[in-house]
Design a protein that fits this description.
By secondary structure, this protein is mostly helical. The chain has one domain.
Length: 262
């Protein structure tokens, strides 16, 4: 699509998008999510796009920039777990394709409520749970490491395909609570896994004409900058504080899914 900014308001829109991108980049890279839960409401409520599909397509392109920039920042600090990412990424890609194809055949109401309750329980576990270091001894591994990453990635792909829920919302608590990874490692690895899945989704939405590149470019400028700042803040936060911050995201996602299902 071509650029559509009117001369009178173009500069203001660009500044709003860049500033929003910086804020989204900081928060999302701190807690390991793609930022779509922030970008889609911004694009729709501010009237930047006319259809929800365009908001989703434009958002997923922004998620790609988020993953690339944040992974670079975390990579410099050697915080990402490449072995875990290599197990999780293929599973996430495959199940997201399959579940997206089946999404129209699923009775969504009860499923949304049930999954929202599941997210709320994970949020409670993240808020009240202890870190491996606080527990002492070896980290808890309810799933084998790193092979269990495939199960977490598969669940993240299913939720992405069925509900449009960002993979980080599943992967961060999954890597932490099920595979015993530290929260900082889980955040960095989640963002790394998002790169191939967001890349494939961006191509698909681009082919369908759902991406407004004139919106993606200023958003990406802000996101890239913010995603370099967020990891520095996240690394400075105590693990317990970062876990509680992420639990708020899970509670919000749970609320949205239950409200949509009722």
């Amino acid at each position: 699509m071509g650029f559509r900014y009117p001369v009178s308001s173009g500069a203001v829109e660009i500044l709003v998008l860049i500033a929003s991108g910086v804020a989204i980049g900081i928060v999302s890279s701190m807690i390991g999510i793609g930022g779509g839960s922030f970008m889609v409401p911004l694009l729709v409520l501010a009237g930047f796009v006319g259809r929800a599909q365009e908001a989703v397509g434009t958002s997923i392109a922004g998620v790609l920039f988020m993953g690339l920039s944040a992974s670079l920042a975390y990579g410099k600090a050697r915080m990402s777990d490449l072995r875990l990412a290599l197990w999780a990424a293929p599973a996430a890609i495959l199940t997201s394709w399959g579940s997206a194809a089946l999404s129209g055949r699923v009775a969504a109401g009860g499923l949304l409520v049930a999954f929202g309750a599941f997210l709320a329980l994970m949020g409670l576990a993240m808020a009240l749970g202890k870190t491996p270091k606080e527990l002492g001894g070896r980290p808890r591994e309810l799933l084998p490491y790193p092979h269990g990453g495939a199960a977490v990635g598969a669940l993240a792909g299913i939720t992405a395909g069925l509900f449009g829920l960002g993979g980080g919302t599943i992967m961060v608590p999954g890597f932490t609570l099920l595979l015993g990874r530290e929260i900082h490692t889980a955040v960095a690895t989640s963002l790394l896994v998002m790169i191939p899945s967001a890349g494939i989704a961006t191509v698909e939405h681009a082919l369908q004409g759902n991406i407004h590149w004139e919106l993606v470019l200023p958003l990406a400028v802000g996101i890239v900058a913010g995603a370099q700042i967020g990891p520095r803040i996240g690394r400075a936060l105590p693990q317990a504080a970062l876990r509680r911050l992420f639990s708020l995201v899970l509670f919000y996602a749970a609320y949205r899914m239950i409200a949509k299902g009722l």
